[in-house]
């Protein structure tokens, strides 16, 4: 497990430079979202993906362990005139109904999750029968690896943890220096 991203660096999570280098719509286009979907952006940070997702789905729930990050997301949602529901939790207990979520997205967050088996169990509980879990993690180095960023994680480790928690592996998509591991309910 990697330490949690510091709140004081929130400005690096949602800014013009990052949007240029890593356009959120590029990832979102790979997720196959529909207008009626309910999406959880788990570990939403300052809302870098939350806000663009909220523009294309029926309901977006921003989840983070940090109240400060959720406040930043709410502020960004208001500026962008989108509605986002906020939920503060570490994922061990998610106050959402059984079978209510179409997609749970974790972008460079899985490595920070403390009790992965418990959190993955909660994800299975809140996902619809047709729901999906998309985990995006850095799986390869890149030209700016020396500058920091998320740690490199073996894609096999993520896959094994998903399957160990009861998910069925649906797909692995290469995405720059990242991999998107998509799990489904069995």
Structure write-up:
The structure is a single chain. The chain has helices spanning 16-21, 24-28, 50-54, 67-79, 116-126, 155-164, and strands at residues 38-42, 59-64, 85-88, 101-107, 127-138, 168-175, 178-184. It is an alpha/beta fold and 186 residues long. The protein has one domain (7-184): Rossmann fold. Strands 3-2-1-4-5-7-6 form a 7-stranded mixed beta sheet, with helices on both faces. The longest helix is centred in the middle third of the chain and has 13 residues, at 67-79. The radius of gyration is 15 Å and the shape is globular. It starts with 15 loop residues before the first helix and ends with a strand. Mean pLDDT is 86; it is low at 143-147.
Give the structure's gist in a few sentences.
The chain has six helices and seven strands. The protein has 186 residues and is an alpha/beta fold.
Summarize the SSE layout with pairings:
Blueprint: H1 16-21, H2 24-28, E1 38-42, H3 50-54, E2 59-64, H4 67-79, E3 85-88, E4 101-107, H5 116-126, E5 127-138, H6 155-164, E6 168-175, E7 178-184
Parallel strand pairs: 1-2, 1-4, 2-3, 4-5
Antiparallel strand pairs: 5-7, 6-7
Number of domains: 1
CATH topology: Rossmann fold
- Structural class by helix and strand composition: alpha/beta
- What is the end-to-end distance? 26 Å
Radius of gyration: 15 Å
The ordered H/E elements are HHEHEHEEHEHEE
The residue-averaged pLDDT reads 86
Total of DSSP H or I helical runs spanning 4+ residues: 6
> What is the CATH architecture assignment?
3-Layer(aba) Sandwich
Report the helical percentage: 25-40%
Indicate the low-confidence ranges by residue numbers.
Answer: 143-147
For the record, what CATH class applies?
Answer: Alpha Beta
Tertiary shape: globular
CATH superfamily: Vaccinia Virus protein VP39
Q: Give the beta-strand count.
A: 7
Q: Order of strands in the sheet with the most strands?
A: 3-2-1-4-5-7-6
């Amino acid at each position: 497990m990697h330490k949690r991203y510091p709140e004081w660096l929130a400005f690096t999570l949602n800014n013009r430079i990052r949007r240029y280098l890593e356009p959120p719509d590029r990832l979102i286009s790979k997720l196959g979202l529909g207008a009626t979907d309910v999406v959880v952006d788990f570990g939403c940070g300052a809302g870098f993906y939350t806000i663009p997702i909220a523009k294309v789905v029926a309901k977006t729930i921003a989840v983070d362990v940090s109240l400060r990050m959720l406040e930043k997301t709410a502020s960004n949602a208001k500026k962008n005139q989108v509605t986002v529901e906020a939920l503060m939790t570490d994922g061990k207990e998610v106050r959402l109904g059984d079978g209510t979520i179409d997609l749970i997205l974790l972008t460079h967050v899985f490595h920070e999750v403390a009790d992965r088996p418990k959190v993955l169990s909660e994800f299975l509980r809140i996902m619809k029968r047709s729901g999906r879990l998309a985990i995006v993690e850095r799986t390869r180095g890149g030209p700016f690896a020396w500058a920091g960023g998320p740690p490199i994680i073996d894609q096999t480790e993520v896959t094994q943890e998903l399957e160990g928690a009861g998910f069925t592996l649906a797909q692995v998509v290469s995405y720059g220096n990242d991999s998107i591991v998509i799990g489904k309910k069995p």
